[in-house]
């Protein structure tokens, strides 16, 4: 679904991006709870087979808010395979960090309806990041929720010389023909939906 990209589209017109975000979130919201549950289990099944990592590798997940895919079954399967799990914790209007998720540790409420491990939990640098999103295209570009938290977190990891595998998590209905690009945007390496795992390796970024 890549198609051509106009010069205006490449500049990342905020109105276009906002329209695509609202449109795809409306489609996601329209999924019945039972549909979301079934699709989330399919995501877990595809993901556990597609993601390869060494025992002890740090993987960041997220707990679902609103109508997001529920990847708790997936991260449980990854933990069974030896992954060290962490979840995003919002520190302020600019920053998220990734805190280790331990099975018996209490989660604390954060902003935007999120919950995460508390400040006593270890902060980790993910090697694989499961990234929530509002929309994505066939070139690996994503539209987030507008806060830029993940873009900044990934940029900080890059500044530390780290290059985590970025896997977008979405339902098929969230795919669009083309996402407007902005200078701060970072392409996904792959996307995981109920249809399977799709790598963007070799896809043109323009």
TrEMBL record:
Organism classification: Bacteria, Pseudomonadati, Pseudomonadota, Alphaproteobacteria, Hyphomicrobiales
NCBIfam families xrefs: MTHFS_bact
Domain of life, per lineage: Bacteria
Entry similarity comment: Belongs to the 5-formyltetrahydrofolate cyclo-ligase family.
Annotated substrate binding sites: 63, 68
Name this polypeptide is given: 5-formyltetrahydrofolate cyclo-ligase
Pfam families listed in its UniProt record: 5-FTHF_cyc-lig
EC number from the UniProt entry: 6.3.3.2
């Amino acid at each position: 679904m890549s198609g051509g990209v106009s010069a205006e589209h490449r500049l990342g017109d905020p109105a276009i991006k906002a329209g695509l975000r609202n449109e795809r979130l409306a489609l996601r919201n329209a999924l019945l709870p039972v549909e979301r549950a079934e699709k989330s289990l399919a995501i877990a099944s595809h993901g556990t087979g597609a993601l390869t990592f060494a025992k002890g590798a740090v993987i960041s997940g997220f707990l679902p808010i609103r109508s997001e895919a529920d990847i708790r079954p997936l991260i449980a399967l990854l933990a069974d395979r030896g992954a060290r799990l962490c979840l995003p914790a919002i520190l302020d209007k600019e920053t998220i960090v990734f805190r280790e998720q331990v099975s018996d540790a209490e989660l604390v409420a954060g902003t935007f309806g999120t919950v995460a491990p508390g400040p006593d939990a270890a902060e980790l640098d993910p090697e694989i990041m499961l990234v929530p999103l509002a929309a994505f295209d066939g070139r690996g570009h994503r539209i987030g929720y507008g806060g830029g938290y993940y873009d900044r977190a990934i940029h900080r990891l890059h500044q530390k010389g780290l290059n985590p595998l970025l896997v977008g998590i979405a339902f098929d209905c969230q795919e669009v023909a083309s996402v407007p690009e902005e200078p701060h945007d970072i392409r996904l390496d792959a996307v995981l939906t109920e249809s399977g795992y799709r790598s963007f390796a070799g896809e043109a970024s323009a």
